[in-house]
Fold this protein.
Amino acid sequence: MVGMSRAVLVPLDYHAVSIAALVVRGETVPLRAEVEAAVAAGVSPVELREAVLVASLFSGFPRALTAFLTLNEVLGEVPEEADAEGAGRAGSRERGEALFRQIHGPNAPPQIATLATLPAAFTHGIYVEAYGRILAREGLSLKLREMVAVSCLVALDLPRTLRAHLLASLRLGASSTELTEVVERAGEIVARDVEPLVAMVRLAARSPSIKK
């Protein structure tokens, strides 16, 4: 799974989305190989940790824990310098909701309305923990964090949620070519037919809602 030729993704982006899909998959041997390849390509420990942290929002605690332990085995413990803008100051509901609106733009209101129908503790966790603490951190751009989310959702085979994050990625500056490569890489890792998902990327790229 390591060594696939890249068309447009820079090494950081390629390895981040690859690692994300592997975290969701939950297999440590290919994850270790991908982390080692990322290090050889110049991806920093902080960037690798941030990619796994975003993936943890989709993988669940057991697979996230396994992924972080694998990361530590390769890198040693990674210091928390990327936390200054994240956990320290961004752990509020207000900041999380503001970031949610920034990322999703005109698509945010219907999504917020849907979230309002869900258990309050769950919704609170999305705004405060996912958006206010993890996605708001330094260390990776919002664009790459959304592409990591896309990779995870391809691996999980969740097209409804995938569409929302494709649109968000495009709004944040990802190209349809980059997202096609993300989808294809994640699909390769989990052995999934990605043709329908590539078509979804093309459709999302024509949406008027991606304009800032």
